[in-house]
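Margin note from the TA: students keep mixing up input and output lines. Inputs are the sequences; the output is the structure of the whole complex. Example:
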Amino acid sequence: MVSSSDRRYTRRDTVLFILCLGLSLFGLFSPTPWGYGVADTLRETVLSPLVWLQTRAEEGRTSRVRFRQVTSERDSTAYLAQFLPSLRAENERLRQLLRLSRRLNTGYVPAEVLHQPQVMDGRTLLLGAGSREGVSVFSPVVSPEGLIGVVLSVSGKSSVAMSWAHPEFRVSAFTVSGNAFGVVAPSNEGRNGEGALEFRGVPYRDSVPLGTLVLSSGLGGVFPKGVPVGTVIGTVREEAGWERVYRLRPAANPGSAAHVLVLLGGRTGDLVSAFPTDSLLEALRLDSIARLRRADSVVQAARVARLARRDSLSRVTPPQGGTPVPPPQRPAQASPMQGGTPSAAPAPRDSAP
Amino acid sequence: MSPNRVSRVQLLLVMMLLVVLQFYLRPRLWDARVSPDFLLIALMLFAMRSSPGLAALAGFAVGLIADTLTPARFGAGALAHTLVGYLGSWGRAVFFADNMLVNAAFVAVGLWVRDLIVLLASGTDHRQMIVELTLYSPLQALTTAGFALVVLITFRSMFSIRLDS
């Protein structure tokens, strides 16, 4: 038997259920714009705090994802930045090679050095240019710093060069001052594991100071004249009072060369101008500075002339109701083009008495 | 303030906590289709402790929220939640609802029925309905039941009251 209170509960529950069900069905079958309107209103008013809360949560989740993305991008950038110095160095070397190729007055072929993992890699180098590009046996191989070696064998697309570190390498050389001649050969007494060269056969009477640049002499017909071979850094030995042997620091390092130029033909040419020494570079620099100064002086002289012309025009223009007044005689001013010093101060303007 | 009133206030606080979790924690959890529905947990726990009329009213309110915040057909959520709340309240009398596992099972079944009604009322394609009802709904029912169990264990003393007594 159901009590009266239970019955009241049941009626109320039924009424509420039917009411909610009716409202739901009304919402379900009402026109769509009505539903959207009600939803928009509720979203903007009663449910706005909940929407705000969910927006914050989504932002937090997005921030976390973004943080991971930024972290991974930073790691990738750091990884790439590790290669930046080597890329810069390679870029600089290629620029130097480009400058050298412009200065060369002989034919050349650019070639990549294909380094091998063997320990003897520095003695012979595999080059990425062969007979198809015009490379032939005994073609000199140079880098922007100086002499690398000579081509030993050639195939269609590649060639093998003997570097100065090879025990059989020899090149006839002379000092940049021209007072000593000799033969450069690899040294057996390299310091700290680095390769070194010996400048042999220098007469005992010819003293070569430290720091002197040694160039190829062009004798022998293999290497052209004027390619830097090394710099004197000491004396190895003095044999029987008639010969001195000097130690040279090599101008170019075959072990680190990535790109070289193989010279074609004209092995007897003179390449001194293609490998300017420090003094020549200094002279070139001074010359360029002098050119700039000359250009500046011309510009300044033109400016002074313009000012003077404007000044004279203002003097010739008659004042209102008066007669033209001739300009007063001024002492002649030396032109900067004639060696005079131009005045940077503007010309004084005339004032009516 | 009577102990019964204190318990009601505490229960109200738990319900509010579930609402906050629904809108603040749920977006940070897994995929939205399998993450737990805290509003349904609140509805089912409330329905099992109140009269059918109040449960239907609460279901209507939860469904209205769902309809407002989701682009599904307006009214489908309200209808589904009303029915689920009402049936959940009646189901308490049929089953032994004081057991926590039974409570969690009620939540899981309620979620699946809710999805079924929403899909039917929205006129969803049969193929999509099968996928939803056999894959996503059971997964979401499992996660929701799990969280409901956690809520019941954590706030055991607060859920020991009968709101219709």
